[in-house]
Amino acid sequence: MKKNELVWRELVDAAIVQRERRWNNVDDVAFRAGVAPATAAYALRRVIEIGAIQQHHAGFTVVNPAKVLTLLCAARSILSDTLAIVTMHDHDIEHLRDRWGAGLIAGGAAAAVELLGGVNTVSDYSERIFYLRDGEAIRTLTELVDQRKEAQHSGFGRDRGNVTLLLADPRAARNWRRHTSFAQTYADLFATPGWQASEFRLALDEKYLSGRDWDQDSA
Q1: Which of 11, 50, 6, 74 lies closest to 215, judged by CA?
Q2: In the 8-state DSSP scheme, what is residue 15?
Q3: pLDDT, tens digit, for every residue of 54-85?
Q4: Measuring CA to CA, which residue among 89, 96, 92, 87 is closest to residue 158?
Q5: Is residue 112 a contact partner of residue 122, using CB atoms and an 8 Å limit?
Q6: Among 51, 56, 66, 181, which has the highest number of CB atoms less than 10 A from its own CB?
Q7: Is-contact 134 100, C-beta < 8 A?
Q8: What is the pLDDT of residue 158?
Q9: Are strands 159-167 and 128-132 parallel, antiparallel or unpaired?
Q10: Distance between alpha carbon 127 and the CA centroid of its chain, in Å?
Q11: Which of 82, 104, 73 is nearest to 183 (CA)?
């Protein structure tokens, strides 16, 4: 992701999930997002222009996180960050989970299911997104792709669908556990084609953004 997107992601996750809207200064959000203060200041300009945050003498407050989320969605491009797209069998996906363990982070629809309570009541899906936490996962990916090519010739297994693999940024790799954050999941679903992705995004809307969130008083 671009550096400004990391800042917007942090603002959204803090405001919507952690209920933390007030920031003491730009340096704090820069540290949390894993970017330089100058980069954070630049990213905040656009958010200020559209009235999503309000500045005051002791920092700033996110008064409309939905606007920040809209900016993040508009800027998100999964394709530009993709390491590989592979078609996998069911047993390949289980192999991913068993082999990588903590090195694999679920994204997209699978992450949405976790954010929605762990039970999928929305839709089936074949397009999957996984973030790799470290270099070891990338090396294992190379081995798996080689094995997948051999399996294609043998005709073994049933295709589950495409799996898009991306590398998590350092801050996300440290903070995310089994799945991506709310803001990352929402933005990735927005950038994913297909009605299934839209259904999961609407379900996240209902849970996290269903209330009218008018611009909040910065005080």
Answers
A1: 50
A2: I
A3: 998 879 999 999 999 999 999 999 988 888 88
A4: 89
A5: yes
A6: 181
A7: no
A8: 46
A9: parallel
A10: 15
A11: 73
CA distance 145 to 188: 23
Q: Which of 137, 171, 163 is nearest to 35 (CA)?
A: 171
Report the distance separating Cα 127 and Cα 85, nearest Å: 10
Q: List, edge to edge, every strand of the sheet that includes 159-167.
A: 82-89, 159-167, 128-132, 104-107
How far is the C-alpha of 16 from the C-alpha of 14, rounded, in Å?
A: 6
In whole angstroms, give the CA distance from residue 60 to residue 65.
13
Residue 188: which of 48, 28, 3, 5 has the closest Cα? 5
Say what the pLDDT of residue 157 is.
45
Tell me the two tokens of residue 17: 């999930």
With beta carbons less than 8 A apart as the criterion, state whether 215 and 47 touch.
no
Provide the token pair at 93.
Answer: 């996906």
Specify the pTM.
Answer: 0.86
CB 204 within 8 A of CB 73: no
Which pLDDT score, from 0 to 100, does residue 92 have? Answer: 63
* Residue 193: exposure state from Cβ atoms within 10 A (0-12, 13-18, ≥19): exposed
**Residue recorded with tokens 């929305």:** 122
